[in-house]
Amino acid sequence: MADRFAHERRLFNGGCHRLAGVDEAGRGALAGPVVAAAVILPEAWIREGMPAALKGLNDSKQLSPAQRERYFALLTETPGVLHAVALVEAELVDQLNILKATHLAMRRAVESLQPPPDHVLVDGRPVPVLGPQQTALVKGDSLSYSIAAASIVAKVTRDHLMNELDPQFPQYGFAVHKGYGTAQHLQALAEHGPCPLHRRSFAPLSQGSQPELF
Predict the structure, then answer these.
(1) Which residues contact 88 (CB under 8 A, 6 or more apart)?
(2) Pairing mode of beta strands 34-40, 133-137
(3) Distance between CA 177 and CA 169 in Å, rounded?
(4) What pTM does this model have?
């Protein structure tokens, strides 16, 4: 297995003192907010190795829901692990576009960390508005434990939020598909049209809300 603390140790050896991983969830969904998380793992873990209970930490998409929930609990309840979450609601996603909304959520998450990081590892491409110095890693959530931790916290936080919103709009099945464009979700949109959680700038919603367009 690749050393998923290699980038963190290189930055520490270069003078970094507090390093955060950042990632998002919900960028491709048709409904609900885009959620970003920033996580600072203990320096002792980075220097000495990941605790055994967290060594399977990976890109959230590579893990089962039960695995994500277990890692989420460990990350958010372990003393010494700092995390912050921020979201941008669907209405603002429509106003800004999804790329700017994702970057805004990431910046808010990083700004919410106390104490703040002096360097950030980002999944994917650089984020211009982020603030601290950053290193962007393509497929970073499978290369860096810090980014993988942020991926888990963002994904599980968003899933929980969609579960909580489901009873308000039971006709759409948000607790099942979390707002993504599954056949069930598209069928519900065809039958009921969009609700306030839907992103009107996303296809097929942007093509009209008439049932025949879905």
Answers:
(1) 33, 34, 96, 101, 102, 104, 105, 108
(2) unpaired
(3) 13
(4) 0.93
